[in-house]
Amino acid sequence: MEKPTTPPPIGNADRSGGLLATSILALSSVLIFIGLRFATRIWLVKRVGWDDWCIVFAGFGHIIGMGLITVQIGYGFGRPAYYLTEHQFQEFMKYSYGEWLQTFATLTFTKISICLLLLRITITKAFIRPLYAAIFVLVVSNVVLSLVWIFQCTPHLDKAWNSKMPGKCYSKGQLERIIISQARLSIPNWYWRTWEVLFGVVAACIPTLRPLYKWLVEEYTRLTSERTPSKPTTDQWTAPKPSMAVPAKTYGAKGDESMLQEEDMLPLQSLEGAGRSENVEREVKQHSKEKETSETLEFKPGLHIPGDLSTSRPGHFKRWDSEARIGGGHGVEEIEDRI
After folding, report:
1. Of 51, 84, 220, 323, which shows the fewest CB atoms inside 10 Å?
2. 56, 34 in Cβ contact below 8 A?
């Protein structure tokens, strides 16, 4: 790439401050998410996998990229190339050449980390084989495209940043196609490239933070319950007030009570007398029979109990099965443990 010979419409504008601030924000976010991920893996899950190490390599790529961007800013990155000296422009192009290789590697490690994370929770071959194929394609494509980028100029590689060297290089359109093959959003703007790499790492880390989220919710609930005073509860049973009478059943004409039988009415009794004691004794016997019946009914796993125990609809059955599983034979706890 040669230095422009005409001044840009914006003049000698300097945007290096925004570039540096964006780079610092992106790197800080990456380090925070990777740190939270490893804290969750080490202290809560107590297991670290290859997907975690791949995201660490992506984090190292961010650190290297931050160093390269800082050096580029020192050589005029953020200012129009027209106002740079020949030495500044040449050094800027040299470090930009290396920064793209770092971007390719960082994105590849991020994508591989996501594939390995999906392999943790996938249990069917219909998903396992495509994921392994995707990892293979990512590795091969990154190696091939990185070599193509390195050897974009022949016979002298340094012609990529030093236009005075003899040789031939790829055109701008060919270089853009190489970049698009690795980083879709990086062509229009440098900021887009930075956010693309950042969001990739964040997306790879968020699913692994679920155990940390659950632990924080449990701790918050525990602390809140300790600070909230508990209300006193009474477990004493109080007998219902006895009704004085039950509406009578009518067997004859309306209002005719001549045909009422004595056993169809609950006689009005005073709180004293032998009638009350007989009533109480009858109720106690009835209550004892109901209690014995309820105690003999045992609910066992795998039993079918007649009668609907959930919707109170007749003719339904509910199966008490303690061996229920989901997700092709894996329970909820086991699937969560895989993440």
Report:
1. 323
2. yes
Q: Is 232 exposed, middle or buried (0-12, 13-18, 19+ CB in 10 A)?
A: exposed
In 3-state terms, what secondary structure has residue 103? Answer: helix
Identity of the amino acid at 280: V
**What's phi and psi for 304, nearest 5 deg?**
-105, 115
Residue 24: both structure tokens together: 């610092």
Residue 184 near residue 198, CB atoms below 8 Å: no
Q: Are 62 and 99 in contact (CB under 8 A)?
A: no
Residue 88: CB atoms within 10 A of its CB come to 18
d(CA 234, CA 333): 36
Is the separation of the CB atoms in 22 and 194 below 8 Å? yes
Q: What pLDDT shows up at residue 171?
A: 87
Supply the pLDDT for residue 270.
44
DSSP labels for 69-92? HHHHHHTTTTS-GGGS-HHHHHHH
What is the pLDDT, as a whole number, of residue 120? 87
Residue 275 CA from chain centroid, whole number? 70
146 in Cβ contact with 157 (< 8 Å) = no
Start-to-end C-alpha separation, the chain:
46
Secondary structure element (H or E) that encloses residue 168, with its range: strand 168-169
Give the pLDDT confidence score for residue 287 in this predicted structure.
61
Q: What is the CA radius of gyration of the chain?
A: 39
Contact call for residues 149 and 104 (beta carbons, < 8 A): yes
- The pLDDT, as a whole number, for residue 329 is 42
- Among positive and negative, which fits the CA dihedral 125, 131, 134, 140? negative
Q: What tokens appear for 325 in the block?
A: 């599983």
| Interatomic CA distance for residues 39 and 48, integer angstroms | 10
Stretches in the chain below the pLDDT threshold 70: 1, 183-188, 229-339
How far from 31 is each of 20, 28, 103, 195, CA to CA, in Å? 17, 5, 17, 14
Alpha-helix residue ranges (DSSP H) falling in 40-151? 50-74, 86-121, 125-150
Give me the pLDDT at residue 32, please. 96
Please tell me whether residue 326 adopts helix, strand or coil conformation: strand
